[in-house]
Amino acid sequence: MNLGIFTGNLGRDPDMRQHNNDNVLGFPIGVQVGTREKPMTMWVDCAIWGKRASTLQQYLAKGSRVTVSGPVKLRSEEHTSDLQSPMYLVCRLLLEK
Predict the structure, then answer these.
(1) Closest CA to 3 of 89, 83, 81
(2) Cβ contact 44:71 at 8 Å
(3) Residue 33's beta-bridge partner residues?
(4) Which of 25, 36, 43, 58 fits as disulfide partner to 53, beta carbons 3.0 to 4.6 Å?
């Protein structure tokens, strides 16, 4: 089963783009990992597709606390820069806290 569930805060305002005539809303969330003595932040890139992307864009902003779940996908090599993770989460469910 390929399912990721993460809770964290948006690291920046979401950005809307078009891909094959479909809306894609992209945003990173910072997930706290590690221990109390040595806290760390893991960044998870997320994408919401279709009509939900247009609808949710108005409700999300940098710092929003969300829980996301969905399958984890791999980016193709030509779409991965040095600053991007090769993996991202396709959001099927998003809950704002």
Answers:
(1) 89
(2) no
(3) 40
(4) 25
* Residue written as token pair 């996301």: 68
The percent of the chain in helix, strand and coil, each rounded to the nearest 5, is 10, 55, 35
Q: Per residue in 23-61, pLDDT tens? A: 999 999 999 998 889 999 999 999 999 999 999 999 999
- Give the up-direction half-sphere exposure of residue 18: CA atoms within 13 A in the CB hemisphere: 2
Other Cβ atoms within 10 Å of 77 Cβ, number: 7
Question: Distance of CA 36 to CAs 39, 66, 85, 96, Å?
Answer: 6, 21, 25, 25
Residue 7 is predicted with a pLDDT of 95
Q: Which of 27, 28, 31 is nearest to 14 (CA)?
A: 27
Residues belonging to the chain: 97
CB of 57 closer than 8 Å to CB of 47: no
